[in-house]
Here is the input.
Amino acid sequence: MLSVAGVHSYYSKAHILDDLGFDIAEGEVVALLGRNGAGKTTTLKSIMQLVVPRRGSVVFRGHDLVGLPPYRVAKHGLGYVPEDRRIFSDLTVTENLEVGRQPERPGAPTWTVDQLFAIFPNLAERRTNRGKHLSGGEQQMLTIARTLMGNPELLLLDEPSEGIAPVIVEQMAETIRALKSQGLTVLLSEQNLHFARAVADRAIIIEGGQKKFDGSFEALSQQPEIRDAYLSV
Ligand code: ATP
Here is the structure.
């Protein structure tokens, strides 16, 4: 579904992604792991074209996305949930979802507000509350749900477990598993190996913008030296 190959990305002169490449198959949930500053956010932004790679390709269903404006990337079927929560604080939960509504896309799961409330029961309970009155975890859930209203085929989630209470982290894991069971493909960045293992089929580890590991969590557990070298666990 997605093929990232030979990607080099920069912030002015700072060379951040260094020949990064990986593939994601339809229906997979893949965790992009690495320490603070490893380049996880830059990888997601380089897929979304919020950072335009200077070299390499990002091919989604046969279309090279490099250089497209991010709104066109979204139209191809990619949804991006940044680490900071982007909700409308004066709109209610339901109104926040409605502003995310996009036309149906053949081949992608199509979401209605009611279907999302079934997957995000906390949001259903708070449907008439304004965004600013939600907890951090609920705001994170609302950002994901609103992105799903765009009916993406591939969801990019930047550190979904970051900065939310442990009980909500468990709900977040359940939510991601529910999205997978609906056929959604997900690439999520994570520092939390435990969370990644609970939701993802595969791990990609990066450090210094280079790929250091790509494989199953079983394979990773048999190589503790990789975990010790590149993850803070
Ligand atoms: P984190 O968990 O801290 O978000 P990360 O793995 O997502 O880490 P990135 O945010 O992709 O890492 O950052 C990779 C490198 O790029 C870091 O060295 C960071 O300081 C640098 N960087 C990030 N954003 C910018 C920017 N706008 N301008 C210059 N350098 C940046």
